[in-house]
Design a protein that fits this description.
By secondary structure, the protein is an alpha/beta fold. The protein has one domain (about 15-275, about 285-330): 3-Layer(aba) Sandwich (Rossmann fold). About 35% of the residues lie in helices and about 20% in strands. The two termini are about 20 Å apart. Bound molecules: adenosine-5'-diphosphate (ADP) and magnesium ion.
């Protein structure tokens, strides 16, 4: 059995909503020319990731751009075909859902997009934007308006009636992201993946939108994955954090433990990159030099080793498996 943070598999009863086991999502890239040059034509965006998500739990998926966070989120929502492994949702294997189960899953699990315009059509009024999922779910026309207003109230848009006939370009970034949230929540899902939901917003309105997200999540008892490259945001939103690097989990544990005493050398680097106040850069550069390696040709053994200040021989030879250190999981040969 795969080792995960919170699985309680004994006795048949479980408080786990989602169980991810050795999940893989590999993309084919480059094509024939790259193959001729001997470049691998596969990006292992997610490469053997395992964790459980309990009912009502909020987990931050943290790591630099390109480490596979969005890909992992898309696997959790069955928006990509899995290359390997499995995701179970409430006992169902997502790769073998019947049509009826898939419809049920689609209403229970939702994505909150990073870019509002991925979620909404600029030519639709706010009313039409929010009516669309209701229509798709077969909700009677007479009931839709009431649900739309409720959803706008939920995300704390004042005077919701005044928004119904407006168009996306007439809204501010913060208002628009609230509409995106309202759209994801209007069918009262049980589980949401929020993919960098404030990264496109002006810094001055981020806190407001994040507070709405936290408030709604707690009020509805949502189970949530919050994706971000920003540890400060994850810390603000999530009790538990999973740190990813090049498609793999480096560390998984309580956010406060990770911030206070990071164990994995990569997590240490993330924690050390503290915010720099009063600059455009919200963070100092990572103290581990160069960017992440070419994802088509990751290092052998530990994928982090060529940036790791503590790398030794074994790290090139052997992929570190996640180990329990206290109540944390760490994938590093130092432990
Ligand atoms: N549709 C795709 N086709 C090919 N490669 C992709 C695709 N989507 C993402 N990738 C690659 O997969 C890796 C992980 O990407 P992504 O999951 O978007 O990371 P993150 O969200 O952490 O920035 C990156 O190397 C990215 O270039
Ligand atoms: Mg992403």
């Amino acid at each position: 059995m795969t080792m995960t943070m919170s699985g309680t598999m004994s006795g048949g009863k479980t408080d786990v909503l989602i169980s991810v086991s050795e999940a893989k999502l590999h993309y084919k890239v480059g094509g024939a020319l790259a193959a001729m040059r001997g470049k691998s034509t596969v990006v292992k965006a997610v490469d053997g990731v395992s964790f459980d998500i309990r009912h009502g739990e909020s987990i931050g998926l943290l790591g630099e751009s390109g480490c596979g966070k969005t890909s992992m989120g898309r696997l959790l929502l069955k928006l990509e075909p899995m290359t390997g492994g499995s995701v179970h949702f409430d006992g169902y294997d997502l790769s073998t859902l019947t049509k009826a189960q898939l419809r049920d899953f689609r209403s229970r699990a939702q994505l909150i997009f990073q870019n509002p315009f991925d979620a909404i059509n600029p030519r639709f009024s706010i009313r039409a934007t929010l009516a669309e999922p209701l229509e798709n779910a077969g909700i009677a026309k007479s009931e839709r308006e009431g649900l739309i207003i409720k959803a706008l109230e939920l995300v704390k848009l004042p005077h919701p009636l005044s928004f119904l006939d407006r168009y996306p370009h007439q809204l501010s970034g913060g208002q628009l992201q609230r509409v995106v949230m309202a759209r994801a929540l209007i069918l009262q899902p049980q589980f949401v993946v929020a993919d960098e939901p404030v990264s496109m917003l002006d810094v001055s309105v981020r806190a407001g939108v994040l507070n709405v997200f936290r408030d709604v999540r707690d009020r509805l008892g949502l189970t949530a994955i919050y994706i971000s490259h920003d540890l400060a945001l994850v810390r603000y939103v999530c009790e538990r954090t999973i740190v990813m690097y090049l498609g793999r989990v480096m560390e998984d544990g309580r956010t406060e433990d990770i911030v206070r005493e990071p164990l994995h050398p990569y997590t240490k680097a993330l924690v050390a990159a503290v915010p720099v106040p009063h600059t455009d850069q919200s963070h100092a550069p990572l103290p581990i030099g160069r960017g992440a390696p070419d994802p088509r040709n990751p290092p052998s053994g530990c994928v982090f080793r060529d940036r790791c200040p503590a790398a030794h021989e074994r790290c090139a030879a052997e992929v570190p498996q996640p180990k329990h250190v206290g109540d944390r999981l760490v994938a590093c040969h130092l432990y």
